[in-house]
Write a structure and sequence with these properties.
By secondary structure, this protein is an alpha/beta fold. Among the domains are: 19-215, Rossmann fold (3-Layer(aba) Sandwich); 470-595, 2-Layer Sandwich (Transcription Regulator spoIIAA), CATH 3.30.750.200; 598-657, no CATH class. The protein is 36% helix and 13% strand. The protein has 25 helices and 24 strands. The strands form 8 sheets. It has a 9-stranded mixed sheet with strand order 3-1-4-5-8-9-12-11-10, sandwiched between helices. Strands 22-23-24 form a 3-stranded parallel sheet. A two-stranded antiparallel ribbon has the order 2-13. α20 (529-541) links the parallel β23 and β24. α2 packs parallel to α8 (190-201) and α23 packs across α25. The longest helix is centred in the last third of the chain and has 18 residues, at 492-509. The N and C termini lie far apart (70 Å).
Length: 657
C-alpha cells in the first residue's frame, strides 16, 4: 500500500499538478495516457483529501493499477466540451453530484438560493445543475450510449428508490430510471467499487454485474430478478402504486429503513413502470483494516492547483486540519441522512491510522499547531458497537440509543479518551479540539457500570480541560418531549443534566469562558407554534440567545421527510401535524429570535392568539403600545417585520453632492 507523500513546506513543487489525478487532456498527455480506464464526473471541485468522496474513489481506482481521471464541475450548458475532452473511458464513467445532494446544496428550506456553494472555489453558485447526477448521466448516455455509467455519492444513494422530492413536491422514481445510468452504488462505495473493478478485470462485462452487494440495477422490461441463493427478497409497492396512494409509499419507507439497518438484509425489488428495480443488500460494515486502507491512500490533502486564483473552497477550509475517526451513526434521528448513507454500524479507524494522519496534517504548510476537529458523524461514537454480536444480528431497531440506550451497546469512551490524549501530546500539536457534535446521551444513560461508567465520568472533564476551543456543539434539536419523540431524540432533561456537568467542569477546571452551542430545528413534523414558544422560554431561562438554528428541510430517505410527504408516521400510520406553508414556518422560526426588537410585536400577537399569556410574560415581559403597533404592521406583512421607511434622497437631507 502506498503511503501519503510528504508535503513540501514551500515552493512551487507543492503545486505540481502531477501529484493530483489528471483533470485535463494536457495532464493526460503529460503522463503519456491516450485513454483512461475510468472517468469520474463530479459536481464538486476536486479536492484531493480523504473527506471528499471523489478523491477517495479516484485514489482507490488508482491503487488497483487503473488509469483514472476526474472532470470536476463540467459545464452542462454549452457544447458539452467538458464531457468530450478526455474521450470515452475503457471501463465506465463514474458520476456523483458531490458530497451533498445538489438540491440541498443549492436551496434553503424556504427554497431560496443559499448564500454560497461550500464545495466550489470562492463559494460561487452556478457550477453545478439542479439534480446534478441525473443531468450528468443523461448527457453521458447521449454522447456515449455504449459506455456504462455508474452512479454514486449521496444524491444517488438517497434517491435509489421511489422518493419524495421537496423542491418539486412530487414522488420521483428511483434515480436509475430518470438518469438512464446503468448501475448505482449506494452508501460508502469503496467495497462495491472494488468488486466491480476486479470482476471487470477478469473479463466479466459490465452488463452482467447484477448481484454485487450494495448496488442497484434496473432489469430490462419484463425480466425477472437475477438469481441469487444467498438473499431473501422483499417486494416493495411499485412506483405507480406509491404515486397513486402515498400510504403505500409510507409503508415502503418503513421496509427500506428496516432492511438498511439489519446486519443480514433482504434484497429489495420494486417495479418502476415495466422495469424491475433490484437493490442488493449492503456489504458488511468495513473492518478496521479496510477503513484504514481508505485513509492511507496518497492524497495531497489539497485542492487541485487549477483553483489557486479562484478563491478558497469553504468546505475544505473547514476540515483541512481535522481528522475523521470513524464512519456511520446509530443515532437514527428522523431528520438525518447519515445512517441511510453511511449505515447504522460504526466503522472505526485504528489509533495508528489516526496518528499517521495527524503527522500528515503537521506537514501542511499552513498548519500552526491546531487540529481543528477529532470527530466523526457523531464525535463520541468511536469504537462503539454491540457487546454481544448475535443480539445485533437479530436487531431491526433503526436507532441503538432511542427511545433509550440499548443495554447491549458498549458506550465505553476509554478508547476515545486514549486517542484524545495521544493526539494532544503529539509533538507539534498545540491544540486538538472536538468541533463535531457530541451525543451526551451516550455518557449520561443509566445502564453503564464499571469501566464504562468510569469513562463517562472522565469524558466531560477531559473535554472541557483540553478539547473545547471555546464553543462546544450539541444538538438537543427541541425541548418538547412530543416533538423529540418524532425526531428520535432524547428528552431535553438530558440536556439539562449535560449542562450541569459541563458548567461544574468549567468551574472546577477554571475555564469559565467556555460555552455550549445548542442546535435547534423549527417546523419539524410534530412541532407546532406552542412548542416553539415553550422552546424559546426554556432556552431563555437557561441563558441562551440561540444562533445555531435551522428550518426543517425535507431530504430524501428520512422518516421526517416521509411524514412531511404523507402526513402520517410510517411506523404506526398515525397522523402527525406538519407546518407546510411559508407563514407557518416563519411563525415557528420567529420564536428563535425573541430577543430581536423587531420580532417582539409579532411574537406577542402570536402568543396571545395561542392563549400563551404566561409564556409571553416570561419570554417578552410586559407589553407596550409600540409592540402592539409593530404586531399589527407585521400581520399586514404576512408575519414578517415591516420594511423600514424609505430614506430621503441625499439632497433632501442637507448633504452635499
Amino acid at each position: 500500500m502506498q503511503s501519503a507523500p510528504t508535503l513540501q513546506p514551500d515552493g512551487e513543487a507543492i503545486w505540481d499538478s502531477r501529484r493530483w489525478l489528471p483533470t485535463t487532456r494536457d495532464e493526460l498527455d503529460a503522463r503519456g495516457w491516450g485513454q483512461v480506464d475510468v472517468i469520474i464526473i463530479s459536481g464538486d471541485a476536486y479536492v484531493d483529501h480523504p473527506a471528499f468522496g471523489t478523491a477517495v474513489v479516484g485514489r482507490i481506482i488508482e491503487r488497483e493499477g487503473l488509469k483514472v481521471a476526474i472532470v470536476p464541475q463540467p459545464n452542462w450548458r454549452d457544447d458539452l466540451r467538458d464531457f468530450r475532452k478526455l474521450g470515452p473511458p475503457r471501463l465506465f464513467f463514474g458520476v456523483t453530484a458531490g458530497c451533498m445532494d445538489s438540491m440541498v446544496n443549492r436551496y434553503t428550506a424556504a427554497k431560496k438560493l443559499r448564500s454560497q456553494d461550500a464545495y466550489t472555489p470562492g463559494g460561487e453558485h452556478g457550477f453545478r445543475p439542479d439534480y446534478a447526477a441525473t443531468v450528468y448521466s443523461r448527457i453521458l448516455k447521449q454522447l456515449y450510449p455504449d459506455v456504462p455509467v455508474l452512479l454514486g455519492g449521496i444524491e444517488a444513494s438517497l434517491r435509489r428508490v421511489t422518493h419524495y422530492d421537496y423542491w418539486s413536491d412530487t414522488l420521483k422514481p428511483g434515480i436509475l430510471l430518470e438518469s438512464g445510468a446503468d448501475m448505482l452504488v449506494y452508501g460508502m462505495g469503496e467495497l462495491p467499487l472494488l468488486e466491480i473493478i476486479r470482476l471487470m478485470g477478469r473479463g466479466v462485462p459490465f452488463s452482467s454485474l447484477r448481484t454485487i452487494p450494495q448496488t442497484a440495477v434496473l432489469m430490462p422490461p419484463g425480466a425477472p430478478p437475477p438469481k441469487n441463493q444467498n438473499w431473501e427478497d422483499h417486494i416493495l409497492h411499485s412506483h405507480d402504486e406509491c404515486v397513486a396512494d402515498r400510504q403505500l409509499y409510507s409503508s415502503n419507507f418503513r421496509q427500506i429503513e428496516v432492511e438498511s439497518n439489519r446486519v443480514k438484509a433482504r434484497r429489495l425489488l420494486q417495479l418502476n413502470g415495466d422495469r424491475l428495480l433490484v437493490i442488493n443488500p449492503p456489504f458488511p460494515t468495513m473492518t478496521e483494516e479496510q477503513i484504514d486502507g481508505s485513509f492511507a491512500l496518497p492524497y495531497t490533502r489539497l485542492p487541485h492547483p487549477r483553483y489557486r486564483k479562484r478563491g478558497p473552497i469553504p468546505a475544505y477550509e473547514m476540515i483541512k486540519h481535522s481528522v475523521n475517526m470513524h464512519r456511520g451513526c446509530f443515532g437514527g434521528c428522523s431528520f438525518c441522512t447519515i445512517s441511510a448513507h453511511q449505515g447504522k454500524f460504526v466503522a472505526s479507524r485504528s489509533k495508528a491510522s489516526i496518528l499517521r494522519e495527524v503527522e500528515q496534517i503537521k506537514q501542511m504548510p499552513d498548519f500552526r499547531g491546531t487540529i481543528s476537529d477529532l470527530g466523526g458523524p457523531s464525535a463520541n461514537m468511536y469504537k462503539m458497537k454491540g457487546k454481544e454480536q448475535w443480539i445485533c444480528d437479530e436487531c431491526v431497531r433503526p436507532s441503538c440509543i432511542w427511545p433509550d440506550v440499548c443495554r447491549n451497546l458498549d458506550t465505553d469512551h476509554t478508547a476515545l479518551l486514549d486517542i484524545y490524549k495521544s493526539v494532544r501530546e503529539t509533538p507539534g500539536v498545540k491544540h486538538a479540539f472536538v468541533t463535531s457534535g457530541i451525543r451526551y446521551d451516550l455518557f449520561l444513560h443509566k445502564h453503564a457500570e464499571g469501566t464504562e461508567k468510569a469513562s463517562h465520568e472522565r469524558y466531560v472533564d477531559e473535554l472541557v480541560e483540553h478539547h473545547v476551543s471555546g464553543r462546544l456543539k450539541v444538538a438537543p434539536e427541541h425541548t418538547s418531549d412530543d416533538v423529540l419523540r418524532v425526531m428520535r431524540k432524547p428528552s431535553f432533561r438530558y440536556f439539562h443534566r449535560f449542562k450541569e456537568k459541563f458548567d461544574a467542569a468549567k468551574k472546577r477546571i477554571g475555564k469559565a469562558q467556555l460555552q455550549i452551542v445548542p442546535y435547534f430545528i423549527s417546523s419539524h413534523p410534530g412541532s407546532q407554534a406552542k412548542d416553539m414558544a415553550n422552546l424559546a422560554v426554556e432556552t431563555k431561562q437557561l441563558g441562551f440567545k440561540l444562533e445555531q438554528v435551522q428550518d426543517f428541510t425535507p431530504t430524501p430517505m428520512t422518516v421526517a421527510t416521509e411524514i412531511y410527504a404523507t402526513g402520517v408516521h410510517p411506523y404506526d400510520g398515525k397522523p402527525v401535524c406538519v407546518a407546510r406553508s411559508p407563514e407557518e414556518k416563519q411563525e415557528q422560526r420567529s420564536f428563535f429570535f425573541w430577543y430581536k426588537p423587531e420580532m417582539r410585536g409579532a411574537l406577542r400577537s402570536t402568543m396571545k392568539r395561542l392563549g400563551l399569556g404566561d409564556a409571553a410574560a416570561k419570554l417578552l415581559g410586559g407589553g407596550s403600545a409600540k409592540d402592539a403597533m409593530l404586531a399589527e404592521d407585521m400581520m399586514d406583512c404576512g408575519g414578517l417585520p415591516p420594511p423600514p421607511p424609505p430614506k430621503k434622497p441625499w439632497f433632501r437631507r442637507g448633504r452635499k453632492p
